[in-house]
Specification:
Blueprint: E1 2-4, E2 9-13, E3 16-22, E4 34-39, E5 46-48, E6 51-54, E7 59-64, E8 69-74, H1 89-97, H2 117-128, H3 150-159, H4 178-191, H5 216-225, H6 244-259, E9 266-269, E10 275-279, E11 282-283, E12 286-290, E13 293-297, E14 303-306
Antiparallel strand pairs: 1-8, 2-3, 3-7, 4-5, 4-8, 6-7, 9-10, 10-11, 12-13, 13-14
Helix pairs in contact: 1-6, 2-3, 4-5
Length: 307
Amino acid sequence: MVGVRHIVAVQPFPGRVTVGLAYKPATAEQTGRLFLVYSADGRGAEWLYQSSYDRNSGNVIASTGHFSVYGVGYKPAPAFTDTVNHWAKADIDFVVSRGLLAGTGDATFTPDGTTTRGMFVTALGRLAGIDPLAFSSSRFNDVAATAYYAPYVEWEASKGIVTGTGDKTFNPDATITREQMAAIMQRYADKLGYTLPVARKAEIFADEGQITNGMKNAVQAMQQAGVMNGKGGHRFGPKDTATRAEAAAVLRRFVEIVIDPAAAGGWGQNDAGRWLYYLDSKPVTGWKQLDGKWYWFDAAGLMQAGG
């Protein structure tokens, strides 16, 4: 479904521009499934997968490198039976409707399942919109040319976003840890020219000493940008295997925050699904009135009561 609106906001963006179209979602529409679309010839529609709905302005916004006729599109996501009450349901719907991640069955996503290296680089390659046919060869002996992740692994290796795990090996079926995910996301942003905002104060995690030295800068950059958050008990969980739900949340936050850095403020969930509210780059604590309602946040900024 596509509805056309006039362009209402165009703002400079490093190397690109941000386009926003005013849109009021229908009652049954979920905002994570809204996209900007454009037409180069006035007939067909192209979907901008790096787009999101900004609740503050009421616009569907996207980063684009050209002007055209823009509209708003909506893509339903599969009705997964195992994500209905999951903390990352909105994130999962967001990435699945954009084709970044897929279900594990006709009606399942397996949100608490593990994320593999091949799976994650595929999502990033799709997010970048690369042409898989342009990367038909493979520099790694354990990446078959027919594997679904093969062109994405080759593209990211050629860009320096990912590296092998040994002499001509990539180990695509190995699980990815949270600190590895942070490092890949930092390189992805750098190689593609995205500027990550420093929107939150640096957090000293209780397990800071467990973060690999070469990945500490990446973890801090992702945390301060609001792309990755801590888990319960002030932990980051650097060596924890990233779940599919966590990968979905990271991908959605990245899309929203690089388009609009202000998205790192206000309400946000940590990587265990707990709610916080960020004000002046740090989580609020104690009682706070928001939108006419009172909420209680503990010393770590986690919402405990209210709403």
